[in-house]
Amino acid sequence: QVQVLESGGGLVQAGGSLRLSCAASGRTCSTYTMAWFRQAPGQERDFAAAIGWSGDSTAYADAVKGRFTISRDNATNTVYLQMNSLKPEDTTVYYCAAKRTTYYTLTYADSRVSEYNYWGQGTEVTVYS
Predict the structure, then answer these.
(1) Phi-psi region of 81 (alpha: psi -120 to 50; beta: other; left: phi over 0)
(2) Which of 34, 64, 87, 89 has an alpha carbon 20 to 30 Å from 15's alpha carbon atom?
(3) Three-class SS of residue 10?
(4) CA–CA separation, 109 vs 104, rounded Å?
């Protein structure tokens, strides 16, 4: 069993930056793929970014590519999402998710909500213009 807890959300002006953190506890997360999804009220939960267990493999949704960077520190079981050049359309709740994996490289499946077993409660990000 793995528990994940997000933090770092808040209010930021368009063009600014925020860093989200996801602390994982329970079983060691070094063999888990970690990801960030986001969901606006009344909308589906959408993929934002994922990172493989070693940190060498990353993937991003087109909407955040070039602006967001996902990273991880397996020594502290923490995953980060550095968000730069934020836009009002980035306003939503961000969720951290984890899934056990035996693969070194990410696949398309790692962008699917249904692939992940463990979810945090979410952290809210508001970008104002």
Answers:
(1) beta
(2) 34
(3) strand
(4) 13
pLDDT digits (tens, 9 = 90+) for 56-95: 999 999 999 999 999 999 999 999 999 999 999 999 999 9
CA atoms within 13 A on the CB side of 33: 26
Which sign, positive or negative, has the C-alpha torsion 97, 73, 111, 47? positive
| pLDDT, tens digit, 9 for 90 and up, residues 87-101 | 999 999 999 999 998
Give the integer Cα–Cα distance in Å for 117 and 129. 35
**Which of helix, strand or coil describes residue 32?**
strand
Give the Cα separation of 46 and 9 in Å (integer): 17
Token pair 């002006």: residue: 13
Tokens of 88: 């009002």
Q: In whole angstroms, what separates CA 118 from the centre of its chain? A: 12
In angstroms, what CA-CA distances link 85 with 16, 19, 51, 67, 124?
5, 12, 21, 6, 17
